[in-house]
Amino acid sequence: MDRRKVLIAVAAVIAALGTLLVFLYVHGADQRANDRYRALKVLVAVKQIDAGETVAAAQAAGKIGVSTITQGDELVGALSTLGPISSEIAQTTIYPGEQIIAGKFAATAATTSTLTIPKGDVAISINLTDTARVAGFVNPGDQVAIFLTANNGAGLPGYYTKLLLPKVEVIAVGTTTVVATTTTSTTGTQTTEQLPRTLFTLGVPQAEAQKIIYASVNGELAFGLVTPTSAVAPDAGANAGDLLH
Q: Which residues have C-beta within 8 Å of that of residue 244, sequence separation ≥ 6?
């Protein structure tokens, strides 16, 4: 076989492999999209379930029902049957529309404890969506960086995102509730989503408390979970003009 035929054969093999890889990628992307929107059955609270109420009592009172959601909206620990918690007790108030999560139930009633506030600090609470709270991985005792997304601030044009505080201690995590949020597209179409929001209590000095409260009223806050090796420092932030640079 001469050199030209060898090169043609190699090119044909490479082309075939390229076509196969493209097919596999597209097929995988389609499968991931299908999985994201696959319908699931989960248990939800139909009526308020009070802290200290048994699962058996809540079920007998008709407080637990079944709802259909997409896989992407399923919360970590959401249940489709009561089997794993059938003999357990609610550890916190569960509001209508919330998914029934195993972590909110235990074999014994939750004990009431006094909130421990770091010396010299004050305790404040803010409500965050599921994505803004690091998908539920933030727990009491964790350190978080707080980021602010707002409009026309710090001399930046339009919307910007900027580090507000580099390290804040979370001293308590409250209940998760489902809040209806309506957004309007540029064409005027309105879309309503049911978004879970969780209450976080922070221990901070007065000056930081004032910043957080003001920022929560005038913009959107988001947590970044901080570890001892995290490199977090104030900078100029980012806006639309920075995205492609």
A: none
CATH code at position 88: 3.90.1210.10
| Angle at alpha carbon of residue 22, lines to 20 and 24, rounded to 5° | 70
Give, in order, the Cα–Cα distances in Å from 194 to each of 128, 133, 141, 191.
14, 16, 29, 10
10 Å Cβ neighbour count for 170?
Answer: 19
Residue 163: CA atoms inside 13 Å, Cβ hemisphere, count? Answer: 15
Do 144 and 226 belong together in one domain?
A: yes
pLDDT of residue 75: 86
CA triple 219-115-88, angle to 5 deg: 100
Does position 132 have pLDDT exceeding 90, yes or no?
Answer: no
pLDDT at 113: 56
Q: Do 44 and 96 fall within a single domain?
A: yes
Distance CA(73)–CA(98), nearest Å, equals 12
206: part of which helix (H) or strand (E)?
A: helix 206-218
Q: Under a CB-based contact definition with an 8 Å cutoff, are residues 49 and 94 in contact?
A: yes
Each residue of 167-211: pLDDT tens digit? 999 998 877 666 666 666 667 777 776 667 788 899 999 999 999
**Same domain, yes or no: 126 and 232:** yes
pLDDT tens, position by position, 17-75: 767 666 556 555 455 545 555 788 999 999 999 888 999 999 999 999 999 988 778 88
Q: In degrees rounded to 5, what are phi and psi of residue 143?
A: -105, 135
Which two structure tokens, joined as six digits, stand for 12?
């044909």
Q: Are residues 76 and 96 in the same domain?
A: yes
